[in-house]
Write a structure and sequence with these properties.
112 residues; alpha+beta; four-stranded mixed sheet
Protein backbone atom coordinates (compact mmCIF):
# COMPACT_ATOMS: atom_id res chain seq x y z
CA UNK A 1 0.00 0.00 0.00
CA UNK A 2 2.85 2.40 0.78
CA UNK A 3 4.14 2.10 -2.79
CA UNK A 4 0.81 3.29 -4.17
CA UNK A 5 0.91 6.39 -2.00
CA UNK A 6 4.28 7.40 -3.48
CA UNK A 7 3.09 6.66 -7.02
CA UNK A 8 -0.06 8.73 -6.51
CA UNK A 9 1.94 11.56 -4.93
CA UNK A 10 4.33 11.50 -7.89
CA UNK A 11 1.46 11.63 -10.37
CA UNK A 12 -0.03 14.57 -8.51
CA UNK A 13 3.27 16.47 -8.69
CA UNK A 14 3.58 15.76 -12.43
CA UNK A 15 0.00 16.80 -13.06
CA UNK A 16 0.25 19.95 -10.93
CA UNK A 17 3.72 20.94 -12.14
CA UNK A 18 2.85 23.21 -15.07
CA UNK A 19 0.42 25.22 -12.95
CA UNK A 20 3.18 26.38 -10.61
CA UNK A 21 6.23 26.04 -12.86
CA UNK A 22 6.38 29.75 -13.69
CA UNK A 23 5.89 33.09 -11.97
CA UNK A 24 3.30 35.67 -12.89
CA UNK A 25 1.11 35.52 -15.96
CA UNK A 26 0.63 38.43 -18.36
CA UNK A 27 -2.49 38.28 -20.52
CA UNK A 28 -2.79 39.66 -24.03
CA UNK A 29 -6.31 41.12 -24.13
CA UNK A 30 -8.33 43.54 -26.23
CA UNK A 31 -7.26 46.27 -23.79
CA UNK A 32 -3.56 45.42 -24.23
CA UNK A 33 -1.15 43.69 -21.85
CA UNK A 34 -2.38 43.05 -18.31
CA UNK A 35 -0.92 43.93 -15.88
CA UNK A 36 0.94 46.95 -17.25
CA UNK A 37 3.70 46.82 -14.61
CA UNK A 38 5.50 43.97 -12.83
CA UNK A 39 8.35 44.08 -10.32
CA UNK A 40 10.34 40.84 -10.27
CA UNK A 41 13.46 39.24 -8.87
CA UNK A 42 16.21 38.01 -11.21
CA UNK A 43 15.48 34.50 -12.46
CA UNK A 44 11.69 34.89 -12.48
CA UNK A 45 9.89 33.32 -15.42
CA UNK A 46 6.83 35.14 -16.74
CA UNK A 47 4.15 33.38 -18.78
CA UNK A 48 2.50 35.43 -21.53
CA UNK A 49 -0.92 34.14 -22.62
CA UNK A 50 -2.89 35.18 -25.70
CA UNK A 51 -6.59 35.51 -24.84
CA UNK A 52 -7.52 36.71 -28.34
CA UNK A 53 -8.53 34.73 -31.43
CA UNK A 54 -6.02 36.67 -33.56
CA UNK A 55 -2.29 35.79 -33.67
CA UNK A 56 -0.05 37.92 -31.45
CA UNK A 57 3.73 38.37 -31.06
CA UNK A 58 5.61 40.07 -28.23
CA UNK A 59 8.84 42.04 -28.23
CA UNK A 60 10.85 42.14 -24.99
CA UNK A 61 13.47 44.91 -24.95
CA UNK A 62 16.06 45.20 -22.20
CA UNK A 63 19.21 47.29 -21.91
CA UNK A 64 21.33 44.85 -23.89
CA UNK A 65 18.94 42.65 -25.83
CA UNK A 66 15.69 42.41 -27.74
CA UNK A 67 13.76 39.14 -27.97
CA UNK A 68 10.70 38.45 -30.12
CA UNK A 69 8.30 35.69 -29.17
CA UNK A 70 7.04 33.11 -31.62
CA UNK A 71 3.54 33.75 -32.95
CA UNK A 72 0.85 32.95 -30.40
CA UNK A 73 -1.63 31.96 -33.06
CA UNK A 74 -4.78 31.37 -31.06
CA UNK A 75 -6.49 32.04 -27.77
CA UNK A 76 -4.91 30.01 -24.99
CA UNK A 77 -1.44 29.80 -26.55
CA UNK A 78 1.41 31.00 -24.38
CA UNK A 79 5.11 31.76 -24.20
CA UNK A 80 7.54 31.84 -21.25
CA UNK A 81 10.43 34.25 -20.78
CA UNK A 82 12.91 34.19 -17.88
CA UNK A 83 14.30 37.54 -16.75
CA UNK A 84 17.87 36.74 -15.72
CA UNK A 85 19.37 40.25 -15.54
CA UNK A 86 18.43 43.23 -13.39
CA UNK A 87 17.05 46.23 -15.20
CA UNK A 88 13.97 47.70 -16.83
CA UNK A 89 12.28 45.88 -19.71
CA UNK A 90 9.74 47.23 -22.16
CA UNK A 91 7.29 44.66 -23.54
CA UNK A 92 4.99 45.45 -26.44
CA UNK A 93 2.86 43.70 -29.01
CA UNK A 94 4.10 43.70 -32.60
CA UNK A 95 0.53 44.13 -33.89
CA UNK A 96 -0.32 47.06 -31.57
CA UNK A 97 2.58 49.24 -30.48
CA UNK A 98 0.33 51.02 -27.98
CA UNK A 99 -0.23 47.71 -26.16
CA UNK A 100 2.78 47.82 -23.86
CA UNK A 101 3.95 47.10 -20.34
CA UNK A 102 7.04 47.51 -18.18
CA UNK A 103 8.87 44.93 -16.09
CA UNK A 104 11.46 45.96 -13.51
CA UNK A 105 13.87 43.22 -12.40
CA UNK A 106 16.01 43.50 -9.27
CA UNK A 107 18.56 41.24 -7.57
CA UNK A 108 17.26 39.12 -4.76
CA UNK A 109 18.77 40.16 -1.44
CA UNK A 110 20.62 37.43 0.38
CA UNK A 111 19.58 36.53 3.90
CA UNK A 112 21.62 38.24 6.66
Amino acid sequence: MKGWVFVLAGLFILAAGPAWAHGPTVEITTAGLEPVLLNLFEGTTVHFTNTLAAPQRLVVTGESETVTSPSLAAAGEGWHYTFVKSGAYAIRLVQRRSAAMRIVVVKKKSAP
